[in-house]
Amino acid sequence: MPRRGAADPVKALLHRHRELCERAVDPLEIAAGLEAHGITDRTAARFRHRDVFSLAEELYARVPRGSGEARPEPAPLPAPRVRAGRVLLTLLPGALGAATVAGLRHTHGQLRPLVAGAGLLAVGLALRAVLRRGPLAGPPAISAWRRASGTRAWTLWLLGYALFGDGLLDAVLTGGPDALPTGAPGGPWPTAVVPALALTLACAPAAWCAHLLSAGARRRLAGSRGLEDFTAAARPLLYGTFTLFLGALTALLLLCGTVLREPAAYPQALTLGALLLLARLLAVHHHRRAPALALGAAAATEAMALALPLAGRLPGCAVLAPPVRTLVDAWGAATVPAVACGVAALALLLHAGRTLTQASAHASTGAPE
């Protein structure tokens, strides 16, 4: 009896991936799913096809779908639509951040902590809304709740350090801190308002860049005839949107520094902004482990920089403080967050260059936004 699997290798592949093929709404979704399972254009040659896309078309055609009526040619993947409400939502964190800074500049005494607390709460709620709707919203995953909670904790730490960390590290190295931050310029514990405000304003360009990446990738996916073809087209799109965001963040830092007449803190703000954007893009496209590790490593580095000088005050532990003190004396307190976030952002950029340029990262998972 002849071995049908050897004569028809596509049939064996269809049997292994029947659920994927039956669930797919078009051949592009099958191609992305095959790539996610490790099937490349070279592998497709063993199934007598020139690339994964043509193999996916045959698999899609072989799966029975109701009656024998002819199926219409699948339409190109639609790009996510821009909605006015969500555009305004991305502007909300920056608007509330600017209002909070203005309130702190015009209040004094016991009213200032109330304004700061209310402002931070409002900005936090606005950021949460931005991350739950629109281009920066990640896919629902109940099983990843703990990992997502850890990622949020690291993100809050990094944002808090951007606001208070440099001043706190300087105070620790000079024997303090002796007082809590007041939010006033030139206070005993300086607060870096410019980078914090610029990062809240950068929520809008971050969402727009995420939309450009998603829409551009779907257009390229619909027009590609091979996985290597799509990767070659998606790589400059990824790096271009990343560069566009850094340019927008630089402009916002310059604007905020000029208006507030304070240092713009370019190194630490740009590296943190790059890290947060890459982490979010990866999370949106179903890659959560790498962002959690990168954010956690950056936060741990900053925490270590604060903990070592404090531990050096203990009897017999004086040797712990000199490394951080030497680094800060040579390059300034801004070196710690710049290096911590810069190294983590570079690692995520390399990881994104491998994962976000794959068709499986942009497979259609439902109705587009």
Structural summary, described in words:
With 369 residues, this protein is mainly alpha-helical. Helices cover 69% and strands 0% of the residues. The protein contains 16 helices and no strands. Helix 7 runs antiparallel to helix 8 (111-132) and helix 13 (266-284) runs parallel beside helix 16 (335-355). The longest helix has 34 residues, at 227-260. The protein is elongated. The model is unreliable at 1-6, 67-79, 141-147 and 365-369 (pLDDT under 50).
Key structural traits:
369 residues; mainly alpha; disordered N terminus
Average of pLDDT = 79
Largest sheet: none
Cα end-to-end separation: 52 Å
Q: What is the string of helix and strand elements? A: HHHHHHHHHHHHHHHH
Strand residues, percent? under 5%
* Helix proportion range: 55-70%
Shape: elongated
Total number of helices? 16
Ranges where pLDDT stays below 50 over 5 or more residues in a row are: 1-6, 67-79, 141-147, 365-369
How many beta-strand runs? 0
Provide the structure class.
Answer: mainly alpha
Whole-angstrom Rg: 25 Å
